[in-house]
Design goal:
Order of helices and strands of chain B: EHHEEHEEHEEHEH
CATH architecture of the largest domain in chain A: 3-Layer(bba) Sandwich
CATH topology of the largest domain in chain A: FAD/NAD(P)-binding domain
Distance between the termini of chain A: 50 Å
Distance between the termini of chain B: 26 Å
Number of strands of chain B: 8
Largest interface: A-B, 47 and 45 residues
Structural class of chain A: alpha/beta
CATH class of the largest domain in chain A: Alpha Beta
CATH architecture of the largest domain in chain B: 2-Layer Sandwich
Low-confidence stretches of chain B: 149-156
Oligomer: heterodimer
Number of strands of chain A: 27
Strand order of the largest sheet of chain A: 3-2-1-7-19
Strand content of chain A: 25-35%
Radius of gyration of chain A: 23 Å
Mean pLDDT of chain B: 91
Radius of gyration of chain B: 16 Å
Low-confidence stretches of chain A: none
Number of domains of chain A: 3
Number of helices of chain B: 6
């Protein structure tokens, strides 16, 4: 019998609890969340904002999940400190809780530009929690125009949602194009066109320098001097891992909590997983936070199993994502805009059909790709990247419409048992 | 638990399995009526050609299932009893995370319905429609524990 404590009630936390419970029916498992909500998926919040799904559908595990798995759920309590020497965690309300094994899966929070004045005004939001979405929706009836700061995935999702709610919309983005982390300029152009056709104004190479209004947001001032009236501003400038609780401890910290190949922190009975954990990137070969749902689930499961004494290695994480706006889907992974001139690019760009495919090669290996419009087979490309497959023999087929898993059957690891050759 | 296997030497690439699959998953279960349905039923199985061989490809209901891990809506679930990856279409939001991670490219996005197209082994029938439709016996519907026997064929 052990006492497992998991801080965080999202992908990594839930996945770890499931992994522990599958093998250990007896030990006590406590899950702590500072929010007052069942397991809900943050990635779905924008769908809720857009009115595409009802609130119930944000929940990704059945209603009786905690009871069925005998999990002790503590909601509405914020952990402010971990004390590894005493094996306890401290809550905001000064109470504390002991643990034998601790998983920190506290996720991340919306990042706001530190120098921007007026962030506290009513009407300024991040889009990270269900509370954010509800507060935005509360303002929608009394607002006619909204601004979005940033051109990343969350920004565009917020823009898309607010557009569906009838808002007049402007996106202010510092880069020359949107989705610059995920796509290249040409690919992003296909999405910019879609947004512009829907009436959204995208102001590139611009920034907000001041948020105006007395208490309530009234307008934003751009670096060009222009003032834009709006009563909702969503700031999508990325996220910061929630690491405050390990300040002043011996836990190694960079941008996120540093973990080894077993998802273990620098203290043997403390693990970290999900958006708060910094892991080895399989493509870039360095240590980064790759905040993404599938990564969090896998890291959670491996942490959970290792917390009960198994010795599972985590190969590493990868940057990747899947998006879709106005019926145009896109998936990208790994290196999409190579800076190293030695990397080779294979590109197919068909503006008429809204199709873009780009493969980035490091000698004989695939290290990244973008697919827009036609996203089939992306999982096969992911496999080729992860396995470091030598793709010399199929290089010319990558961008072809006839590409399929069958073309790489002889190249991938693990022979396929379903085919009798 | 029965699984689908493919004798590649016998597959002519005639796509009878694709048509049978699309019809079996249509509203009317009839080819000509199915063609007129508002949301065209698409095959869950596709024949891929490589070299001079044809490879039927569909969901393998993997025991390690990256698609289930990637599904942020909780729509894909691995059912321990039937050993199948089940899909709750009502929960699906069409985010295509499953397409992003399927190592076989077996999950195809239906961009119209925003629902991924995956083999469900015709779970309410005695055997999958593709098995019945294959004119050469290239699609084999067998208990999974016969795998060893099958893999020994491979090396012949």
């Amino acid at each position: 019998m052990k006492n497992f404590v998991i801080i965080g009630n999202s992908a990594a936390g839930i996945s770890a609890a499931e992994a522990i419970r599958q093998k250990d029916k007896k030990s006590k498992i406590t899950i702590i969340s500072e929010e007052d909500y069942h397991s809900y998926c943050r990635c779905l919040i924008s769908y809720f904002l857009a009115g595409e799904i009802p609130e119930e559908k944000l929940v990704f595990r059945p209603e009786d999940f905690y009871k069925e798995n005998n999990l002790n759920l503590i909601l509405n309590k914020k952990v402010v400190k971990v004390e590894p020497k005493k094996n306890i965690i401290k809550f905001e309300d000064k109470t504390s809780l002991g643990y034998d094994m601790l998983l920190i899966a506290t996720g991340a929070s919306s990042k706001f530009p530190p120098d921007l004045k007026g962030l506290k005004k009513k009407g300024v939001f991040g889009l990270r929690t269900i509370r954010d979405a509800k507060e935005i929706l509360n303002l929608v009836p009394s607002s006619s125009s909204s601004c979005i700061l940033g051109g990343g995935l969350v920004s565009l999702k917020a823009a898309y949602g607010l557009l569906k709610r009838g808002q007049e919309l402007k996106i202010i983005v510092k880069s020359k194009f949107v989705l610059s982390q995920m796509l290249d300029e040409k690919g992003a152009g296909l999405f910019m066109k879609k947004f512009q056709e829907a009436g959204v104004e995208i102001m590139t190479a611009r920034d907000i320098v001041e948020i105006l209004g007395n208490g309530d947001l009234k307008a934003v001032r751009l670096d060009s001097g222009k003032v834009i009236a709006c009563s909702i501003l969503v700031v999508g400038k990325g996220v910061n891992p929630n690491t405050d609780l390990i300040k002043d401890t011996q836990l190694n910290l960079d941008k996120g909590i540093l973990v080894d190949q077993y998802m273990k922190s620098s203290i043997p009975n403390i693990f970290a997983a999900g958006d708060v954990a910094q892991t080895f990137d399989l493509v870039y070969k360095n240590s980064v936070v790759n905040a993404l749902w599938p990564n969090a689930i896998e890291q959670g499961r491996i942490s959970g199993l290792n917390m009960i004494g198994e010795n599972l290695k985590y190969d590493g994480s990868m940057t990747m994502n899947s998006i879709g706006f106005f019926d145009l889907p896109a998936i990208s992974m790994g290196i999409t805009r190579p800076k190293n001139p030695e990397l080779e690019e294979l590109v197919l760009f068909d503006e008429k059909r809204n199709i873009c495919k780009k493969f980035v090669l490091d000698k004989n290996h695939l290290v990244g790709m973008i697919a827009i419009g036609d996203i089939s087979n992306c999982g096969v490309f992911l496999r080729l990247i992860k396995e470091g497959t030598d793709i010399t023999s199929i290089k010319n087929e990558l961008v072809s419409e006839t590409f399929s898993y069958a073309k790489v059957l002889d190249l991938v690891k693990h022979k396929d048992e379903v085919f009798i050759l | 638990m029965k699984k689908l296997y493919y004798d590649v030497k016998k597959c002519l690439g005639c796509k009878s399995c694709e048509i049978a699959c699309a019809v079996a998953h249509s509203q009317n279960k009839d080819l000509f009526k199915a063609l007129k349905e508002e949301m065209l039923s698409l095959p869950r199985k596709k024949i891929h050609r490589s070299g001079d061989k044809n490879f039927p490809n569909s969901c393998r209901h993997c025991q390690e299932h990256p698609c289930v891990d990637a599904c942020m809506a909780g729509a894909l679930v691995y059912d321990q009893e039937s050993n199948m990856v089940l899909h709750d279409e009502a929960r699906c939001v069409g985010c295509w995370m499953c397409v992003m991670v399927c190592p076989y490219g077996s999950i195809r996005p239906n961009l119209k319905s925003k629902i991924p197209i995956r083999c469900d082994k015709c779970k309410d029938e005695d055997e999958p429609a593709c098995v019945r439709a294959c004119p050469t016996g290239a699609i084999i519907w067998k208990e999974a524990d016969e795998e060893n026997l099958l893999s020994s064929n491979k090396t012949e």
